[in-house]
């Protein structure tokens, strides 16, 4: 047997495996003898058929099976022994395989194309630019959140005259068309320039407007009509107001406090505001952590400057998905795939060099926390603890264990980023909500 490597570029190569008769024939003969002992062939007693008959019937299929087994083992062992990191899976040269004469050939040549990267080098020290962020909440953000909570839990009441934040119900009719339908819509969907004409309306009033120029949101969703009907709303329309609804914010009382945060968690307006502030800070700081993670990843990606075998990986994605994805889809999604793959290589390199690992106990703990958060959203937090172990076990076993591996990888990535921040001596920057919003836009 002979295995040779031919590097075409810095990240693509071909592996050629040559099998001689001595490499495979003993295994083929042994398999045929085993077949003969078990074969039930017409004209012969079970297990008594001559090996020659068995070879004639099954020889080619056994030969193909054994050679494929040898190829798989030898190729895997050879690639594991290399210093570079294999990406995707080896791609066999289909043209070469189609030209094989299985019945007459004695020597077989097989060629596989591979994509790889050499060792990933990342310098993790104080020279690395890294920043951690912490939110500074202003009073307006806190009060706006409280107002939103009160309105979300409030009730709809009829209003005499329309105002900002109200919703209107009435008959919408195209002036020069056939459309006429009863609709309801929020005034928040009206653009700022046109809003004035919708304020101060009373039941029975008629307002004329062009929906396409007045409504800033999606017309079909705003009026709850089909896309076909939207086409009929081109041009001037009239709305005969039938009803004006306004949300009456809920009272700041114990019933609302209990509904918002659970029985007895807060009991005064001051405690309620403090709890809102605490949760707001937690949410914003969580989002800031995600933002900081992405910024740090960008820095590490730029420093490592990994050159992926793009052409190879695109072909591998198409072939490995067996027609489930198109060339156009791969082209469109490849940049995101390449970035994630590069980050995975960097994270694994840092973890390996610094003995960073995620433990089984950490996987269980994070899964429990995730389930508690999800169930808590539906008001089930108190009922789930007695079944928690079952929920965790079922989740981690789903998708043939992929959920477990994804959780393990997520924890390791977080540990790697924490390690990098520590080594980079990341400074903490306090930012306002407005500053954070501007950071997201850049």
What is the CA-CA span between the terminal residues?
57 Å
Annotation field: number of helices: 15
**Overall pLDDT level:** 92
The helix fraction, in percent, is: 40-55%
Beta fraction of the residues? 15-25%
Unreliable runs: none
Q: Major sheet, described briefly?
A: 5 strands, antiparallel
Structural class: alpha+beta
Q: In one word, what is the shape? A: elongated
Q: From N to C, what is the helix and strand string?
A: EEHHEHEEHEEEEHHHEHHHHHHHEH
Q: Radius of gyration over alpha carbons?
A: 34 Å
Count of strand segments: 11
Concise summary:
The chain has 15 helices and eleven strands.
Notes on the structure:
The chain is 50% helix and 18% strand. With 442 residues, the protein is α+β, with helices and mostly antiparallel strands. Strands 6, 7, 8, 9 and 10 form a five-stranded antiparallel beta sheet that branches. β7 and β8 (180-186) form a beta hairpin. The protein is elongated, with a radius of gyration of 34 Å.
Q: Which characteristics define this entry?
A:
442 residues; alpha+beta; five-stranded antiparallel β-sheet; 15 helices; 11 strands
Provide the fold topology.
Elements (H helix, E strand, L loop, with lengths): L1 E6 L4 E8 L1 H18 L12 H30 L4 E8 L1 H5 L9 E10 L13 E6 L2 H14 L2 E4 L8 E8 L5 E7 L19 E4 L1 H4 L4 H5 L3 H5 L5 E12 L5 H8 L7 H36 L5 H11 L6 H27 L6 H18 L10 H10 L4 H23 L2 E6 H9 L1
Parallel strand pairs: 5-11
Antiparallel strand pairs: 1-2, 2-4, 3-4, 6-10, 7-8, 7-10, 9-10
